[in-house]
Every structure is written in C-alpha cells, then in structure tokens.
# Entry
Amino acid sequence: MDAEKNTNAGDIGRFNVWGVQADGDVSQRNRRARIVKAITLTFLFTGASIGVYAQPGNPASGTALTAKAAQPTRQWVTPPAGDVQKGAALYQDRCTACHAIDSNKTGPAHRGVMGRRVGGLAGYTYSVELARSRLRWTPQTLNVWLEDPEELVAGQRMGFQVEDPQQRADLIAYLATLK
Ligand code: HEC
# Structure
C-alpha cells in the first residue's frame, strides 16, 4: 500500500517538475529523470538552432562551399560612374602604402591593370591563389576585389577593403586611366 502511495505521489510530481513536493523516493527519482531529460532536449534543440551541427560535412554548407569555389552563378555588379579626381586622391591616401603605379611594392604595380589578367604582372610574386585565378581585371572584378578581396579569390594576400561603393567606383575610374 505504501508503494502504491509513492507511485501516486510520483504521478502528481509529473505536473510539478519544478515544484516543492517530495513525496518519497519514487517521486524524487522521477523528477530527477525528467529534469535531466528536459535539459538534454533543450541542449539538442539549442544546438540545432544555433548551427552547432552545421559542420562542413553538412550537405547545406557543403553546397555553399562548392558554389563559392566554382562561382557558376555569380552576379557581377557594374560600379556606378566614378570621379577620376576623387579616385586619384583616394589612391594616394589608401593604396600607396602597398602599391605604386610603376613599381612593385608589397603589392603589384598598377599601370595597365584594367584589362590585365588577374595576378598576371610579370616580375611580381603573387599568392599562388591569385596567380592561378582565371579572371581578368574589369570594373566588375575590381569592384568585388576592392570590396572584399577574399570574396573574389579566396586565399589571396591583400588585406585591405574599401567599404564605400562610390569610393570603389572612383578608384576604379582612376585605375582605368593608368594606361
Ligand atoms: C596592406 C597592403 C595593401 C593595400 C593597402 C592595398 N593593397 Fe592591393 N594588393 C596588395 C597585395 C599584397 C596584393 C597581391 C595579392 C596576392 O598576390 O594575393 C595586391 C593586389 C592588388 C590588385 C591585383 C593586381 C594584379 O596585378 O592582379 C589590385 C587591383 C589592387 N591590389 C588594388 C588595390 C587598391 C586600388 C588599393 C587601395 C584602395 C589597394 N590595392 C590597397 C596589398 C595591398
């Protein structure tokens, strides 16, 4: 009869997981088991929703990586018209720490860059990734490069970005004059 009573107490406890009732061993054990289960479920759920399980092996992220590597559907954006004067000033300000027009520094010389093969200036040692890329410098590729070089060629070596779209357009207009 006592055992029966304890079981009932445990049943009541089911609706009272966080409650104060502690009617004997069975109730206690059941409650502990339920709490452990609740915590485990919360963990699994939270993990799934914050992407703990979304590792590169996951088909979704795998597709993203492949798509980026092959770039079959990249949408090229033509930059707006740029101001050559402003571009020249921006170039002096932002680029000349690493670049010059007619000589290689940390980065390659820029004369003739528009239309040139990406990573294609003889006499400058590019990153393997840039040298191997099969792209050409156009207003569109330069626009992506200046916004985020890594987005254009992953593994490249230029650690510099120009956030402002109009400033990129001005720089591109200026680079186009360096023939
Ligand atoms: C901190 C140094 C640094 C700064 C600042 C910098 N660059 Fe570069 N840039 C590099 C390096 C290094 C490379 C070569 C990257 C490689 O080989 O992967 C490069 C490559 C380039 C290339 C590719 C040229 C080619 O021959 O393929 C262009 C275009 C370029 N930079 C434009 C710019 C412009 C425009 C600015 C200023 C807004 C700028 N960079 C600022 C370091 C820099």
Remarks:
- The radius of gyration is 31 Å.
- The pocket of heme C is lined by residues 94-95, 97-99, 106-108, 113, 118-119, 121, 126-127, 130, 142, 145-146, 156-160, 162, 171 (CB under 6 Å).
